Hints:
By secondary structure, this protein is of the alpha/beta class. The protein has 14 helices and 9 strands. The strands form 2 sheets. A 7-stranded mixed sheet has the order 4-3-2-5-6-9-7. A two-stranded antiparallel sheet has the order 1-8. The protein is elongated and about 65 Å long. It starts with 6 loop residues before the first helix and ends with a helix. The mean pLDDT is 96.
Amino acid sequence: MINYNSAAEVARVLRSRGIVPKKRWGQNFLVSAGVREKLIKLIGPGKEDVVWEIGAGLGALTSMLTGKVRKLFIFEIDPGLIDFLKEAFGSVNRLYITEGDFLKRWQEVREKEGVPDTICGNLPYSSGSAIIVSLIKKNCIPDKMVFTLQREMARRLIAEPGSKSYSSFSLICQFVYKVKHHGDVRSGSFYPVPDVFSSIIEMVPHNRFTQLKEREIFFSLVDDLFASRRKTIRNNIFSGKVARNYGINTLKKALSQSPLNLERRGESLSVDEVVVLAQRIGEVNSGG
């Protein structure tokens, strides 16, 4: 078994197998025992849990999850790492390796196995936000998600309305999850050393998502409100998806009954304000 806490050992194993870490896949391998232990504590694996791990790499986190959960599904895109994982973990009971891009493969696993209890992993910056949004919009909401990701993305996840980091991504994630920031991870905790800091994020769903039946309206509203950050709510919303899908008259009536100042900008709105507007549009569209 590899000494996952040694950058030199990880580098040796990668070289011996002709694997060159690729930036486009966010391949920075965790080499910190302390960070791994913190992640496992946050994940809190249970004997009856089904866990998905995104980007298993050489198995630094995988090795700490095996034997602690009912089923462990690991996703890996790199062919060289897939071969290594098969050799290292192929004989482990109730561990399943899914090859390829997580964004293209996860729905197959969900269809066969259902929604997992926990999703974890080290998310690449290039596709991390797309992964989280894909899971949310396709209603794959586990009891918990625990990730290491670039600090800039973590700031977007926890950003408040009106702040520079607040975006449609912030609003969508906060609509579904209570997001907790559990500290930053220094660059030296990874091999190769990345150019940026990372953060540890925990995401636990609250009831707002399951209780709102106008979810599709909500998601369309978010897209409209952030279509152009420099435009007002009025200018964005009347030329967007909601107007096209539900009609200008429905939108006008809903807005006339809303306390929102249409001269505000979308990035100033809280999750609750967008939820209320989605509900009102839904009510008007249903004849209310």
